[in-house]
Amino acid sequence: MLGFSSSLIAQIEKPVIWSTAISKKEVKAGEIVELIFTAQIKSGWYLYSSDFDPNLGPNVTEIEIEKDPSFEVVGKLISVDSKKKYDSLWGGEYRYFKGTGVFKQKIKVLKDSPVIQVSLNAQACTDVSGKCVPVSGDFTFEGIKVTAGPAKETPVPANPKTPGKSTGALDKNSSVAELELEKSKLITRTPDGKDESIEVLKTFVRKWGN
């Protein structure tokens, strides 16, 4: 009976207690928020982080987020200020938390009131006996409100006109093409294509120049 009790206690041992939070509860559409996972780790235990080679040996902390059109996952899970240590058994460096561990995951909010379902898997070990146990949890993040859509910029015209002037008016902001167009309107030409205004000026000079 005693052996059964000891086995049962070992199975239900939970060296890590999780709490969650959201960085912002009111956002604009397209804005990014952070899902925050905080681990309270039992004395004598440590929790592997998410920021080392998963092929090294220990189980890194990982999350799986259920897809939904109301949001997008941005980047990877981030371990905040994890510690590092070289382990000769694994032949490499791993990272971990003691006491308290914090993880963050960025999410882009696309629609109002998204419901974000997250599954977490990790591993905790104790230096006392060398025992390691799996750590898991299912979390739901909700209550995010989209207050407004993203601000839109008003396009600026390439050649702004002075307010109040007629369409045909020219000013210092007029383009070269507009000036050429107005010039063409003021020029009359002879049947052979010459600028008639120049010909009239020449005739005037010949007649009255003396």
Describe this structure in words.
- The protein is an alpha+beta fold and 210 residues long.
- The chain folds into 2 domains: 15-148, Thiol:disulfide interchange protein DsbD, N-terminal domain (Immunoglobulin-like), CATH 2.60.40.1250; 176-208, no CATH class.
- It has 3 helices and 12 strands; from the N terminus they run αββββββββββββαα.
- Strands 4, 5, 7, 8, 10 and 11 form a 6-stranded antiparallel beta sheet that branches. Strands 1-3-9-6 form a 4-stranded antiparallel beta sheet, with no helix packed on it. The protein has a two-stranded parallel sheet with strand order 2-12.
- The radius of gyration is 37 Å and the shape is elongated.
CATH H level, superfamily name of the largest domain = Thiol:disulfide interchange protein DsbD, N-terminal domain
- Average pLDDT, to the nearest integer? 80
Spatial shape: elongated
Q: Provide the number of structural domains.
A: 2
Radius of gyration: 37 Å
Q: What are the salient characteristics of this protein?
A:
alpha+beta, elongated, 210 residues, Immunoglobulin-like
In short:
The chain is α+β, with helices and mostly antiparallel strands and 210 residues long. The protein has 3 helices and 12 strands; from the N terminus they run H-E-E-E-E-E-E-E-E-E-E-E-E-H-H.
How does the SSE layout of this entry go?
Blueprint: H1 2-12, E1 16-22, E2 26-28, E3 32-41, E4 45-48, E5 62-65, E6 71-80, E7 83-87, E8 92-97, E9 100-109, E10 116-126, E11 132-141, E12 145-148, H2 176-186, H3 196-208
Parallel strand pairs: 2-12
Antiparallel strand pairs: 1-3, 3-9, 4-8, 4-10, 5-10, 6-9, 7-8, 10-11
